[in-house]
Design goal:
Elements (H helix, E strand, L loop, with lengths): L4 H13 L9 H11 L5 E6 L3 E2 L2 E2 L3 E10 L5 E4 L14 E6 H4 L3 E2 L21 E2 L2 H5 L5 E11 L2 E9 L6 E7 L6 H21 L4 E7 L3 H9 L1 H4 L2 E7 L8 E4 L7 H13 L3 E4 L8 H4 L8 E5 L21 H20 L2 E4 L27 H10 L1 E5 H8 L3 H13 L3 E5 L9 H4 L1 H10 L4
Parallel strand pairs: 7-8, 11-12, 11-13, 13-16, 14-15
Antiparallel strand pairs: 1-10, 2-3, 4-5, 4-9, 6-9, 10-12, 14-16, 17-18, 17-19
Bound molecules: zinc ion (ZN).
Length: 456
């Protein structure tokens, strides 16, 4: 595989999606989903404006065709075709002549960064406005201007994309991202790009768990999906919100509301095993859609694996969060970390030692000769003893790798060998731990296992 191959693919997709003007509704979202659909077979859903979704109502659909500010000479001072960030999101249509003093009431800038255009919206407070750089703002002369926002706000629908990947298990893992931002890269086209290729990867390897992939507008999209899919919530074991995965910062993991769920332990283990610096953040009830998924009446444990968290990098929600802020190598690294998280989720089985009375005589089973063998990770003698000792139906491979302070991949490879040699057996592939001693509970199983594997 070429260096950064996945990162390059993700970057190309982002580049294609970057010019599209997206919002929480409208044709930008549809066009974006159409491009994703060329890569993975998502279903695209339309929920009519006015649909009641919990305590909210699906808003009117917003579309924009053009916008500008012209001076008296007819020269365009601001042009929507040059950057869609120039228009306040969800701006009402307007076309009129206006004096500078009045125009200024509808202009938004970021004085701290005089060259950057801020990204602002007004979804639920009907308004119109332009966002521009402080430099452009200061260059405006005291004269009359022609402002035009050629937009529509009408009954239509909210659009989202969903892909269900059927695994062996009914239990699902939720992977969600939002696609409501216009030309902004790290927040959040990086999430859209990464999740598209992660879904493609999952479809190729035919997972054990089922996976539900969502491309939704932030907040209202999550509320809408949850409200219309209440029957699906119970099957979701836990989930991740994919966002801000293309910047140069270290990995950051925002934990689930539980704070110590299996998913929290999995992501932390992946980050520990990487040997790189990372940040761990406790759950807080703002941020992205984890706050909807983790509201008390929904209660899905959802974390978020990012690089630099939204709001903590200067370029956040400005025109500087562009194609040169993100890099293919960082996208590639984030993609690898997500794949490792999936590897742990998929392989966190519970095993039962089939020879639990004292340690087995490994010399007679050809195991010692395998230590340092030619598997991807060498079979570790210590790993072997940890697995044999803790495989009692109450410790998963993740628990064992954490307790033993050994990389998960070493524990997993060692468990595969022990399993091939008939010394351990998968006890529960669903990760649910046994409360009681399974040897006492299931004498029959133990006897049968001994016969099957010819353990004397
Ligand atoms: Zn944002």
């Amino acid at each position: 595989m070429r260096k950064n191959e996945s990162g390059d693919e993700i970057y190309s997709l982002i580049k294609k999606l970057y010019p599209i003007c997206r919002s929480i509704t409208g044709n930008g979202v549809r066009k974006t989903l159409g491009i994703i659909k060329d890569i993975i077979p998502i279903n695209i859903y339309e929920v009519p404006s006015g649909t009641k979704v919990f305590d909210w109502v699906v808003p009117k659909e917003w579309n924009i065709h053009n916008a500008y500010i012209k001076n008296l000479k007819g020269k365009k001072i601001l042009d929507f075709n040059k950057s869609n960030l120039y228009v306040l999101g969800y701006s009402l249509p307007i076309k009129k002549k206006i004096k500078l003093a009045e125009l200024k009431k509808n202009l938004y800038t970021l004085p701290k960064y005089p060259n950057w255009i801020p990204y602002l919206t007004s979804y639920y407070n009907p308004s119109w406005g332009f966002c521009l750089s402080q430099k452009e703002y200061l260059s405006l002369k005291d004269e009359e201007y022609e402002v035009c926002i050629d937009s529509t706000l009408e009954n239509g629908s909210l659009t989202y994309g969903e892909l269900f990947i059927q695994g062996d298990l009914k239990q699902e893992i939720l992977l969600s991202t939002y696609l409501c931002h216009p030309s902004l890269c790290n927040d959040n086209l990086s999430g859209v790009g990464l999740l598209t290729y992660l879904a493609k990867y999952l479809m190729e390897f035919k997972p054990h768990y089922s996976y539900r992939i969502l491309f939704i507008p932030e907040t209202i999209g999550a509320i809408t999906w949850l409200s219309l899919n209440k029957n699906k919530i119970q099957n979701i074991k836990y989930g991740l919100v994919v966002t801000c995965v293309g910047d140069p910062g270290n990995l950051t993991y925002k934990k689930t509301r539980d704070g110590n769920s299996e998913l929290d332990q999995i992501v932390k283990k992946v980050l520990d095993d990487s040997g790189e610096d990372y940040n761990l953040i406790d759950f807080f009830p703002s941020g992205s859609d984890e706050r909807q998924f983790s509201s008390p009446g929904i209660n899905i444990q959802v974390g978020s694996l990012m690089r630099t968290i939204y709001g903590k990098y200067e370029e956040y929600h400005t025109s500087a969060d562009n194609l040169s802020f993100i890099e293919s190598s960082f996208l590639d690294d984030s993609f690898k970390k997500y794949k490792e998280v999936l590897y742990l989720i998929e392989n966190n089985n519970l095993y039962l030692n089939l020879n639990p009375q004292c340690e087995p005589n490994l010399g007679t089973k050809g195991i010692y000769s395998l230590i340092g063998g030619n598997k991807d990770e060498p079979l570790d003698k210590l790993a072997l003893f940890w697995i044999l000792n803790l495989s009692d139906g109450t410790n998963s491979l993740l628990d064992i790798s954490i307790k033993a302070k050994i990389k998960f991949s070493v524990i997993k490879n060692t468990a595969d060998i022990l399993s091939e040699k008939g010394l351990i057996k998968i006890y529960n592939s669903n990760g649910i731990k046994n409360q009681f001693n399974p040897y006492l509970k299931d004498e029959d199983f133990y006897k049968k296992a001994k016969e099957k594997f010819d353990l004397k």
